[in-house]
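Subject: Sanity check before I submit

Could someone independently write out the structure tokens for this chain? I want to compare against mine line by line before I put it in a report. The sequence has 113 residues.
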Amino acid sequence: MAEHIKIRPASGTWVVRVAGAVIGESKAALELTEGEYPPVIYFPRDDIAMAFLDPSDTESTCPYKGNASYYSIAAKSGTIPDAVWSYEAPKAGVEKIKDYLAFNPNKVTVEEV
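---
Independent answer below. Compare away.
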């Protein structure tokens, strides 16, 4: 793993809110810190209402984590494109985030409760 990436259990209970509705809550979230970037909370898939997520055609590549797949969120107020990402086959050293989802904090609310 790249020395600048750290993954640890996120303390407490974390929620994802979309247009005021909670679509996920977890006590098993992970916090990933990467260099100078703000920490990112990753949620286990089992703790997210996956029925609200639609796979997107968008993909991106991180040289340290691998290829990311994206999801859009179907909300009452409309679709929120590419609001979620996941590393389906993360690179060696960051395997802990496999089967976890991260949410764009500029598109949804991710907070500790």
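---
OP: Matches mine. For the report I'm noting this point. Strands lie at 5-9, 14-18, 21-26, 30-34, 40-44, 53-62, 66-75, 78-86, 100-103, 109-112.
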